[in-house]
Amino acid sequence: MPIRPVTADELPLLQDIERAAGAPFRDLGMAAVADDEPPAPDVLERYRREGRAWVAVDDADAPVAYLVCEPVDGALHVEQVSVRPDAARRGVGRALLAYAADRAREEGLAGLTLTTFTQVPWNAPYYARLGFRVLEEAELTPGLRKIRAHERELGLDRWPRVCMRLPDGARPASPRP
């Protein structure tokens, strides 16, 4: 599936993808996550303007998934990666992560980082299968600590969360079942 920078007129579509991708959290008893509003258009526009927002598109060039990220303490931090449910389980998220890993390498950044839920099958277990590893508390950089503190303020720690890293130079592996 092709990946390209998001265009300004596609920002509302990213919000739609985010809402659709959040819906399955409801089945896990995480209605607050499912009901959480996607990033505001001005936030998404900032990522787009900085060249840090990419979409995976279908044959009609319509976005089916997106990833936004920013440098944090020498790594490229994945702020959000979301895949429309009807495009899930096809390697779209992995392809976006691989694209981001390539961009990190081109910029001389030390791999990818992200924060995620530990007990959601398509979160930490999935990222581990791709080659991300959980960072111990002592390994968290100041920027990652700040991100985790903000997540706690938002109430996301009602469910266990971790920071993970894909090592510098690595690309996400094909997930094993």
TrEMBL record:
Domain annotation N-acetyltransferase: ranges: 1-151
One of the record's GO molecular function terms: acyltransferase activity, transferring groups other than amino-acyl groups
SUPFAM superfamilies the record matches: Acyl-CoA N-acyltransferases (Nat) (SSF55729)
Tree of life domain: Bacteria
PROSITE patterns registered for this protein in UniProt: GNAT
Keyword flag Transferase: yes
InterPro entries: Acyl_CoA_acyltransferase, GNAT_dom
UniProt entry keywords in alphabetical sequence: Acyltransferase, Transferase
Gene3D superfamilies on file: 3.40.630.30
Transferase is among the record's keywords: yes
UniProt protein name: GCN5 family acetyltransferase
